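Components:
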Amino acid sequence: MATIPSHALRHLTVTRPWLRKIRCTASLAFCSPDNYINGNADTKTTNNSNSQAFFPKKNQVLELECESLAFKGKGVCKVADSGFVLLCDRALPGERFIGRVTRKKGSYAEVTKLKTISPHWDLVDAPCEYASYCGGCKTQNLSYEAQVRAKEQQVRELLINVGKFSDKSPDFSSIMKPIVPCDIQFHYRNKMEFSFGSQKWLPKELLDQKLDDNENYALGLHAPGFFDKILNVDKCLLQSEPANKILATVQDHWKDPELGLSPYNVHTHAGFLKHLVLRTGRDMKTGLPELMVNFVTSSYKPGLLKLLVEKISAIPEVASIVNNVNTSVGNTSVGEEEYTLYGKSTITESLRGLTFQISANSFFQTNTRQAEVLYKLIEDCAGLRGDGSEVVLDLFCGTGTIGLTLAKTARHVYGYEVVAQAVADAHRNALLNGISNATFVQGDLNKIGENFGKDFPKPDIVISADPNRPGMHMKLIKFLLKLKAPRIVYVSCNPATCARDLDYLCHGVERAKHQRMLPVKKHRASGHVPSYSPY
Ligand SMILES: C[S@@+](CC[C@H](N)C(=O)[O-])C[C@H]1O[C@@H](n2cnc3c(N)ncnc32)[C@H](O)[C@@H]1O
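Structure:
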C-alpha cells in the first residue's frame, strides 16, 4: 500500500496486502520496467561476461543454482559455470539442482527440475500433502520469514527500478516500510474455488494407469499450466476447518453413480458440475463461522443436487447453499442466474466494527484477519481529521467496504465501481450499518471523460484500493494529477503496475515516460499487456 500525501507526492508507505503469495522479482536490476510489469524476467545483460556466450539448447540437462524468486514464484537460476539465467518452477533460493531446458524465450530459458543436489536455504517441511504438485502454494516449503523477505525485496526493487525512487535518498526508509506479516499462515482464506473436471491430473509415475471414467473425475485445483486437468484434493490448508468438512462431504458423494452427476468437460462442453465455491464468514450473533456453498453448474437441475444439499446442510456451520447457473462455454464461476437451495442467500462478516453481507459473487478481501490490519492501515494513511469535514473518493470501491469504514469520520464518501451488483451490495451495506453519508456510482474508471469529477466535491482523500492487476488507466492517472488531492492512498495486488503508477503520480507522466527504457510499441507487442494499454 502506498500513501501519496501532498501535491509533491513524495512520501510513500509501502506494505503488502498481497502477503500470502510470492509473485514476482529477482535479479531485477537487469530488467526493463516493462518486462517486470509483463512478468518477463528479461535477463540479457547479466553482469557475467560468460553469459553472453552460453545459450542452452532445448532438452539440454544442466546443473543449476537458484538465486532468488521471480514472477509467480519461479526460481531465478544461474548455470553454475557461466551465470546464464534460467527460470524454474519450484526452485527456491540457494537450491542446487539438475534441470532440463524446456523452452527458450528471448534471452533466457525455462527449465524443469529433475533432481535436487542440495536443498534451498530456509527449507521447512511443507505441511500440505499436495504442496509439491498444487499450483496454489508453490513456496510452501520455504519458511514464511523467507517468503516475506523475498516479497519485500521484490517491492523494493520494483520501487527503485520501475517507480524510480532512489534507495540512496534519506527518505527511502519512510517510502518503503517493512512488511506487516500475517500472524497465521494457514486456514486464513475465506474463499476457495474448486473445479470439477473429467480429467484427473496424475503425477508422472502414475500416468500409465488406466482409469475408468468415474475414477478419472476430479474435484480440486487446476494443475499448474493446465486449464483442463484437475488435481483432486480432499482438503486444503488455506481454508477454514468447516470449509474442509464441506469439501470432504462433497468428495464422499459426488461420484456416486446413483446421483447421476457429471463434471463439466471443458473440451466437449458436456457435463453438469463446473465449480464448488466455499466462502467462510461469521455469524454476527454467535461470532462463530458461517459458510456459503456455491455450486456452479452448466444448467439448472436442482433435483440432481438434492442429495448433496441434504448432506451438506447437516453440517452446522452451513448457512447458505446457492446454485449459480452458468450456461456459457467459458469457465467462470459467475452465473447468469442464481438460486438459493438452502438457508440464506448471503453470509455476513465484520470488519472494523461494521457488518458486511457477502453474496456468492461479491468481492471481499480473501484474508479476513489481514483485511482488518490493512483497513486499519488505510485509515491511518488516510489521516482523516475526524471532524466530519472531509470528502473521500473511493475508486474501485467494490462492495464499499473501505469507503464505509471511513464514512464515520468523513463528511461524505463517493465510491466508483464498474460492476452493478457490487454497487448494489455497497448500498445495502451502507443501509445495514446505518450509514447515510456514502454515495456509490456505477462507472468504468478506464473510460472516464472530461466530466468525471463534476458530480462530486473536490475530495480531500482519494482511496484507490486494488484496481485490477493492470493498474490504473492513464486517463485516471491524468485526472488524479490534475485533481491534486492532498492525499492518495493506493493499495495494490500487483506491485509492478503499482510501482509504474506511482512513478506517474509522483514524478509526472512526461518525466516518467521519458525515462522508460523500452519504446511503447514493444510493450504493446509483448503479449502480456493489459486488455487496455495505459500508454
Ligand atoms: C479487487 S476489488 C477491490 C474492491 C475494494 N476496493 C476492496 O478493496 O474491497 C477491485 C474492484 O475494482 C472493480 N473494477 C475493476 N475495473 C474497474 C474499472 N475499470 N472501473 C471501475 N471499477 C473497476 C472491480 O469490479 C472490483 O470490484
